[in-house]
């Protein structure tokens, strides 16, 4: 199993990308810190995090999150995450499922359809549920190390089990008397979570508010007012910020790509259009941003 020391400005997932795609699933143990940077990190993979002790404070989908001992978190592909502070005693385990394997399995995993994970990406496990999850992770570790023809099928079945466990335990958490009282006795699906999931899938082709409003069966005006109320910024600003986050991540972590190639990956017809959009959002050109970093 891999161990991560938490070097500044270097997210553990970046260095492991090739191995993740080759193996399909990688379990990173003994994670004692998370890189604290000014910019969010965007992974193409599904990342499940189990916190054993300590805490981490940061952002997920532009919203503040707090992750503490016996915490369980799901970070979806292409959803930005930012770590701002990690305690000295922090210890966690990462389960990284490759983008290709996740796409293949998402129809059978609770993570693929449960919008509660978008509205609240972290939840706290009871001691009993925590030990149950850890036992399943131990099984995953054993299966991940196998070199058998049936390895992929066994991993898929075990990930399905982990998915169902976490979904069940999460429901027990959000439906507890304490949680219901805090939430006004109702658990709502998050409009922003639905919007962000659509944005992660379609931002390369669609950067206009109207498209997302229509996808959610809302008028652009009403949709915009709901996002503004929830986030404090307009839906258009959310879209621009998301595209800028994706661009920054590629500029920082893909030195093998030039500006034009990055623009193409983001859905721009040419480097001029990409540079103009990026500068309007960030205040400098992509080339200037890359030099600064």
Q: What is the chains' assembly state?
A: single chain
The CATH homology group name of the largest domain: Regulatory protein AraC
Please summarize the sheet with the most strands.
6 strands, mixed
Enumerate the strands of the largest sheet in spatial order, edge to edge or round the barrel.
1-2-8-3-6-9
Q: What's the pLDDT, averaged over the residues?
A: 83
The end-to-end distance, rounded to whole angstroms, is 31 Å
Q: What is the H-and-E element order?
A: EHHEEEEEEEHHEHHHHHHHHHH
What's the domain count? 2
Helix content: 40-55%
Please identify, by name, the CATH architecture of the largest domain: Sandwich
Query: Which stretches are poorly predicted, pLDDT < 50 over at least 5 residues?
Result: 2-9, 179-189
Class of the largest domain in CATH?
A: Mainly Beta
CATH topology of the largest domain: Jelly Rolls
Number of helices: 14
Report the radius of gyration as a whole number of Å: 19 Å
Number of strands: 9
Query: In terms of structural class, how would the helical and strand content be classed?
Result: alpha+beta
Q: How much of the polypeptide forms β-strand, as a percent range?
A: 15-25%
């Amino acid at each position: 199993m891999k161990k991560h020391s938490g070097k500044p400005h270097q997210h553990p997932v970046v260095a492991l990308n090739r191995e993740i795609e080759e193996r399909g699933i990688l379990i990173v143990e003994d994670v004692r810190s998370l890189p604290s940077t000014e910019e969010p990190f965007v992974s193409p993979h599904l990342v499940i995090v189990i916190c054993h002790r300590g805490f981490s404070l940061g952002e997920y989908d532009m919203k503040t999150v707090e992750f503490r001992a016996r915490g369980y978190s799901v970070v979806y592909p292409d959803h930005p995450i930012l770590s701002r502070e990690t305690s000295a005693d922090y210890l966690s385990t990462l389960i990284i499922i490759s983008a290709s394997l996740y796409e293949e399995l998402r129809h059978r995993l609770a993570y693929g359809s449960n919008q509660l994970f978008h509205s609240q990406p972290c939840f706290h496990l009871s001691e009993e549920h925590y030990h149950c999850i850890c036992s399943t992770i131990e099984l995953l570790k054993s299966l991940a190390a196998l070199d058998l023809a049936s390895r992929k099928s066994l991993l898929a079945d075990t990930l399905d089990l982990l998915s169902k466990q976490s979904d069940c335990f999460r429901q027990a958490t959000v439906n507890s008397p304490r949680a219901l009282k805090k939430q006004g006795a109702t658990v709502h699906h998050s409009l922003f979570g639905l919007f962000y999931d659509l944005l992660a899938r379609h931002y390369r082709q669609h950067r206009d508010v109207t498209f997302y409003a229509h996808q959610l069966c809302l008028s652009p005006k009403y949709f915009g007012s709901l996002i503004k109320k929830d986030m404090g910024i307009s839906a258009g600003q959310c879209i621009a910020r998301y595209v800028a986050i994706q661009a920054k991540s590629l500029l920082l972590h893909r030195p093998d790509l030039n500006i034009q190639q990055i623009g193409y990956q983001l859905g721009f017809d040419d480097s001029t259009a990409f540079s103009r959009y990026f500068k309007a959002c960030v205040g400098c050109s992509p080339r200037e941003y890359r030099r600064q970093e």
